Amino acid sequence: MKDLLQIKHAGDYAVVLDAAVHHPLVNVIHYDELGAIGHNLLRLGVYAIFVQDNFPTNASYGLSNYNTSTGSLTAAAPGQIIGKSDDGQRVVYHGWALFFDPELMHGTAFERNLIHYHFFSYNVNEALHTTDEEKHMLWRLMEMIRAELTRQPRSAMADTIVQDYIVLLCDYCRLFYQRQFKAAVKEQNDVLSRFQQVLTTYYDRQLQHTHGVPSVKYCASEMCLSPSYFGDLIRNLTGESPMQTIQKFLINRAKSLMVGGRTVTQTADELGFEYPQHFTRFFKKHAGIQPSKYVASLKRPPQTPPG
To answer: Residue 194 and residue 191: Cα distance in Å, rounded?
Structure first.
């Protein structure tokens, strides 16, 4: 893409917007101070967190479009593409953006907790829709980060304090997403029934013969969600991972097939396992019995109760 801006350093986007650059590894932008600005499509080499009242309409994230309402948070990691190509329009945005280099966070709690900060790999159409209280808390943390970056004279502890603020900001993002997931409990039946329907349709379309057993990535895609967001949503709704739900579906389907007269080999093939022995190990692990013994138990005549 010829209009793709490479954001290799924390201050690169600030330079494009003619905003202040505070630090070689971390920078904060306050959109309210900039007036009307044009659109940009960014390829990130840094982490970015946007907490805004308004976002560009029909902006892009990877290959998808998204729209966000007022009071939203989006986050992106190095290697991702985010934003909107310049269409000549200039718009006034309200809110904050934080950019920081992975190098800044080496050896910190951020690096240790990154495995839990799934929101950096969510699609932007899975934005956190903040309450007013949450939004102002996040804005306040942005202000505190910038205040520390611009404090004069800078103390030897300045970078450590900024790192701690970033970890705190990310922890609040995670906390507020938990609130959003809990709110989704009202739609629990719909989400879970759609998940089951995706699995059923997968076999109705005979996809197991070309793609094997269904994957979490496939199910998330069919529900128009990123794997990370999908995983967090299902875990919050059921207490189990999507993979555990898929495994239960496969066990129940296997039992139905074998009750219907299929052999172990036929069942393995109809479920999409490459080899019968793979299915045997899977069934033994998750059902607690060898599939051959399960089939044998189906053929055992009922016992007459003692008279």
So the answer is: 5
Q: Do 164 and 279 reside in the same domain of the chain? A: no
Residue 207 lies in domain: 187-299
Q: At 41, which helix (H) or strand (E)?
A: strand 41-44
Answer whether residue 306 shows pLDDT above 70: no
Residue 206 CA: distances (Å) to CA of 57, 98, 146, 213: 38, 46, 55, 10
**Dist CA 91 CA 196 (whole Å):** 43
CB 106 within 8 A of CB 64: no
User: What is the per-residue pLDDT for 280?
Assistant: 95
Rounded mean pLDDT, 41-70: 68
* Residues contacting residue 85 through CB under 8 Å, at least 6 positions apart: 1, 3, 39, 40, 41, 60
Give the pLDDT of residue 40.
86
Tokens read off for 186: 């009202």
Q: Considering the domain boundaries, does residue 304 fall inside one?
A: no
Residue 3 CB partners (closer than 8 Å, separation 6+)? 41, 85, 86
